Amino acid sequence: MLGPVDTADDSRMRELYAYPENLQRCWVRGNMIASLDGGATSDGKSGGLAGPGDRALFHLMREAADVILMGAATVRIENYSGAQFSIAQRQARQRRGQAEVPPIAVITASANLDHDAKFFTRTEVAPLILTCTNTVADARHRLGAVAEVIDASGSDPSRVEPAVALRILAERKMFRVLTEGGPQLLSTLIEDNLLDELCLTVAPMLIGGVARRIATGPGQVHAQMRPAHLLTDHEGYLYTRYVRGQS
């Protein structure tokens, strides 16, 4: 265990949260937060659990990514904007051979998204809407002016196949994938053995109630993970990073 750490120490944090080098496939990193008693939200939003250190890591992980992958429910609830970077951050990304700003990619079978959402209106790059065969034509009609709409179905035309979505991202050289949830998308990635690492912040608070877990879905698996690092800060937040282990 390292700590306490200063999550604003960009050089040290970048080293600790660097993606593997020379990727030839998508490496999927999940970034989530939970309370001590396992709740993933406070008052319905994950941001209610965050502190300054977690927010700093949130932005650092976005800066490292080629694409930010989300489920539609998270986009609606959190109302995230597109990634916002300084000139220095953009230059660092260019030196690494990345686009200045990573797009947000949304997995959604219905493509039922509000045109006024900030990830449409407050972004420099058009989002990617990864939807299904049954919906793609209508989604392109409704959203084609503000996003790139892509068919990411597999054998079932009524659902998005996450493995197909990742293959599409890999074909675009978007290998460094950051997913910020929500719980249903994270659960699907776990069930399909597509999650390579999980960065979980444990907030030093108890919330009780019926808050959802970080992963919520019908399937249940035992995906073995191994710890890469364990950090803490002066406010008592715990920053864990686990990578996929051998089964």
From TrEMBL:
InterPro entries: DHFR-like_dom_sf (IPR024072), RibDG_C (IPR002734), Riboflavin_Biosynth_HTPR (IPR050765). The keyword NADP applies. One of its GO terms (molecular function) is 5-amino-6-(5-phosphoribosylamino)uracil reductase activity. Pfam families: RibD_C. Residues 27-238 form the Bacterial bifunctional deaminase-reductase C-terminal domain. One of its GO terms (biological process) is riboflavin biosynthetic process. Signal peptide: none annotated. The keyword Oxidoreductase applies. Pathway: Cofactor biosynthesis; riboflavin biosynthesis. Keywords: NADP, Oxidoreductase. NCBIfam families: PRK14059.1-2, PRK14059.1-4. This is Bacterial bifunctional deaminase-reductase C-terminal domain-containing protein. It comes from Mycolicibacterium mageritense (Mycobacterium mageritense).
